[in-house]
Specification:
Helicase, Ruva Protein, domain 3, Rossmann fold, five-stranded parallel β-sheet, 15 helices, 11 strands, disordered N terminus
Length: 389
C-alpha cells in the first residue's frame, strides 16, 4: 500500500480558513461509498514487485531486457541531470517535469513571475540533448506565419521559396503565449498536436524530438488572451514555479560572482537519437491493469463519479479531466518510473506530478473561483478519496 501525503483543501494561504468540499470539514468528511449494484470495477491489490518485474520482462517489446533498458536510460538521464545542475540552481521539480515531458513526447506550460530561470532551463535542456533551440516572444501583433513560416518570392528566379519559421526546432520556448492572439495560439497548438506545419499547401514535418515550453505571467493580465480550456488540455503538464529557497539564491549569487555560469558545460550531452530511444523506452515501461484501473478511477472521480465520489465536488468543479488527462497520468508515470530505475509503474509514480498533470484540466465553478479554492486542493481530495492499490 502506498501512503498518501497529508491533504490540504482550499486556498494556498495558510492564514485563512480553507473552504471545504462539503458541509463537513475535509478531515472528517468520508468519501462516499459506491452505490450498491454499481458496475464500477474495483482496482484490487497491486501484484508484488517481483511479479511486476516478471510481467515487464514478458511484455517487453525491446530486443534488450528491461533491466538493460533501465541501465542505459539511467546513464543518459544522469548526464542530463548533471548538465542541468551546472546551469540551473534548484528548481528540481521543474527539471523533473521538463525531462518527463520530453521523454513522454509532451509539452509543458510554465506559469511564474519573471526571473525564475524559465528561459535558462529551456536552453539548458536543449543543450543537454544536443538539440536546436528557438525562443519566440509572443506579442499581440504576432501572426501565424511568423511562427510557422512563409513563402517569399525570389525575384531572380521568379519562384516562391519557403522560409521555415522558428517553430522548426527541437525545443521551442513560447514566451508569454497568452499575449498572442487566439489565431496565433491556434496555429501553434495545431503544430504541437500534429507535429507538422503546412506552408503554401506543402506539409513540413517538425524535427524529432519536438517539445514546446510555453510560459505565461499570472500577474499581468492587461493585453492578454486567455488560453481556452480545450487548448490548455493539449499541454501534458502545467508547472507553476515558485521562488528559490534563500540558500539557493545565495548559491546563485556565488556562481555569478565566480563566473561559473559563463564556463562551458563539462558534461558530454546526449544526442537527439538518445532522446528518441528514451521515448521508446518510456512506452515499454510496464503498466499493470490495476494501475490503469486506478488512473481511470482518479479521472472519473474528478468528474463527480468514481468508486468513492468526493462529497460536494460538483460545487467546485464544473468540468473534470478528459480521457486525455488519464493518458497523461499514465505516460508521465511511465517516465517517472524509468527515471527511478524501474521497469514498472507504481501508484507513487502516478501521484508524483499529479498537480502539474491535472491542475489545468479541471474547470472550476464560479463559486470555487470566488472562494479562491486552489485546484491543487481538489486534486489532493481526489487522490485521497480513491483507494490506493
Amino acid at each position: 500500500m502506498s501512503t498518501q501525503p497529508e491533504q490540504h483543501y482550499g486556498t494556498s494561504s495558510p492564514s485563512t480558513a480553507p473552504p471545504v468540499l462539503s458541509e463537513l470539514p475535509p478531515s472528517v468528511a468520508p468519501p462516499a461509498s459506491p452505490p450498491r449494484g454499481s458496475s464500477y470495477p474495483d482496482t484490487g491489490p497491486l501484484p508484488a514487485r517481483s511479479e511486476l518485474r516478471r510481467e515487464a520482462e514478458r511484455t517487453s517489446r525491446s530486443t534488450a531486457s528491461p533491466e538493460e533498458d533501465v541501465a542505459r536510460a539511467g546513464d543518459l538521464l544522469k548526464r542530463v541531470r548533471r548538465i542541468f545542475s551546472e546551469r540551473v540552481v534548484g528548481q528540481e521539480r521543474l527539471r523533473i517535469a521538463m525531462v518527463s515531458a520530453l521523454i513522454a513526447s509532451g509539452h509543458v506550460l510554465l506559469e511564474s513571475v519573471p526571473g525564475l530561470a524559465k528561459t535558462t532551463a529551456a536552453q539548458t535542456l536543449a543543450a543537454a540533448v544536443s538539440g536546436s533551440f528557438h525562443r519566440i516572444q509572443c506579442t499581440p501583433d504576432l501572426m501565424p506565419n511568423d511562427i510557422v513560416g512563409t513563402q517569399v518570392l525570389n525575384y531572380q528566379t521568379g519562384e516562391m521559396t519557403t522560409q521555415l519559421g522558428p517553430v522548426h526546432a527541437n525545443i521551442v520556448l513560447l514566451d508569454e503565449i497568452n499575449r498572442s492572439s487566439a489565431k496565433t495560439q491556434s496555429a501553434m497548438l495545431e503544430a504541437m498536436q500534429e507535429r507538422q506545419t503546412s506552408i503554401g499547401g506543402v506539409v513540413y514535418a517538425l524535427p524529432h524530438p519536438f517539445m514546446v515550453l510555453a510560459t505565461q505571467n499570472p500577474i499581468e493580465e492587461e493585453g492578454t488572451y486567455v488560453l481556452p480550456e480545450a487548448q490548455m488540455d493539449r499541454f501534458l503538464m502545467k508547472e507553476v514555479l515558485t521562488y528559490p529557497r534563500p540558500a539557493e539564491e545565495a548559491d546563485i549569487l556565488d556562481r555569478i560572482s565566480q563566473g561559473a555560469f559563463d564556463q562551458p558545460i563539462t558534461t558530454e550531452p546526449i544526442s537527439t537519437r538518445d532522446v528518441e530511444w528514451l521515448q521508446g523506452a518510456v512506452e515499454r515501461v510496464y503498466v499493470d491493469p490495476v494501475i490503469k484501473q486506478y488512473i481511470v478511477a482518479l479521472v472519473n472521480t474528478s468528474r463527480g463519479g468514481g468508486p468513492r465520489p468526493v462529497p460536494g465536488i460538483e460545487r467546485h468543479v464544473r468540468v473534470g479531466a478528459s480521457p486525455r488527462g488519464g493518458i497523461a497520468l499514465m505516460k508521465v508515470s511511465q517516465a517517472i518510473a524509468l527515471q527511478a530505475g524501474r521497469t514498472y509503474v507504481t501508484p507513487d509514480d502516478v501521484g508524483l506530478l499529479r498537480h502539474a498533470i491535472l491542475r489545468h484540466r479541471l474547470v472550476l465553478t464560479y463559486d470555487a473561483l470566488a472562494d479562491d479554492v486552489a485546484p491543487e486542493s481538489i486534486i489532493d481530495a481526489i487522490f485521497a478519496a480513491v483507494p490506493t492499490p
